[in-house]
Amino acid sequence: VATTLLQGVAWSVPGLSQLLLSAAAFKWAAFVALTIVVFTSAHANKLTWAMIFIVEIGLSVGGFFSEFKEVFFFAMIALSAAGVRLTAKQAVGGGILVAALLAMAVVWTAIKGEYRQYESQGEASQSVQVDVGERWSKITSLIGEIDEQKLDFAIDNLIKRMSYVEMFGAVLETVPRYISHEWGALLWEAVSRPFMPRFFFPDKAALDDSAMTRKYAQVSVAGAEEATSISIGYMGECYVDFGEFGMIAPIFAIGFAMGRIHRWL
Predict the structure, then answer these.
(1) Residues 108-130: what's their mean pLDDT?
(2) Burial of 17 per CB tally in 10 Å (0-12, 13-18, 19+)
(3) What was the pLDDT predicted at 117?
(4) CB within 10 Å: which end of the chain, N or C, has fewer?
(5) Whole-model pTM above 0.85?
(6) CA–CA distance, 231 with 248 (Å, rounded to integer)
């Protein structure tokens, strides 16, 4: 409930949207805690947890982005942190869930272009202009139109999106041959930006990952005019900042920090 309220206020007060949306994401801390308790207690009600899991999927389907994957990821993180030893029956159930996630990802990749156009009613924005019933109806209609050609394209596109090696390869061809390394400018921008809400820093530059991709990868990608954002990824940004050897340090630091957080939890 608190998350829903925060998200609603976030879109009403653009100057504080980053801050409020980040606060709304704390619901996943509650979900992780709940999952750990449920799966480490002999008397916990797993049916309640399953209902919450299903409700989260239902609420996320129909949004502008593919948020449905988040509940899967946080469930996996929590089960890992809890040190749960799965029975054969639970392992089969987990396999079915992973297969369902992959199937949903392929289907979403196949329909998201047309669906987003419909959802925003042709506006160049990441906004939802239709109600829930109409969105579900449109999703059902688009799924029914998926043929073998669309499915093959979606699978190929999803694999490329998950691997993300083509974009990094393009960056290697461009930097430093045509554009010099930035020596920490991108990293500083990433670290400082969340602590500078536009409400207090009205002159803060707009965030445009696609513009950065066009500059450092020298490839043509959709951007704000198509209501999307395509980045070169943190691997590419670290290379642009520090070069092929220097990039190892910030990437190691990110991995080390994640590992320590996981160990502490």
Answers:
(1) 72
(2) middle
(3) 78
(4) N
(5) no
(6) 19
Which DSSP symbol is given to 82? H
pLDDT: which is higher, 239 or 126 = 239
Residue written as tokens 């957080």? 261
Q: How much is the average pLDDT of 190-219?
A: 88
**Within 10 A of 104 (CB to CB), how many other CB atoms are there?**
16
Q: Examine the pLDDT at 125 and tell me if it is beyond 60.
A: no
Tokens of 42: 């002999």
For residue 228 the two structure tokens come to: 């999307």
Q: Is the dihedral of CA 116, 122, 126, 132 positive or negative?
A: negative
In the 8-state DSSP scheme, what is residue 85? -
Burial class (CB in 10 A: 0-12, 13-18, 19+), 171: buried
* Rounded Cα–Cα distance for residues 123 and 166 (Å): 30
Closest CA to 61 of 6, 120, 127, 140: 140
Secondary structure class of 66 (helix, strand, coil) = coil
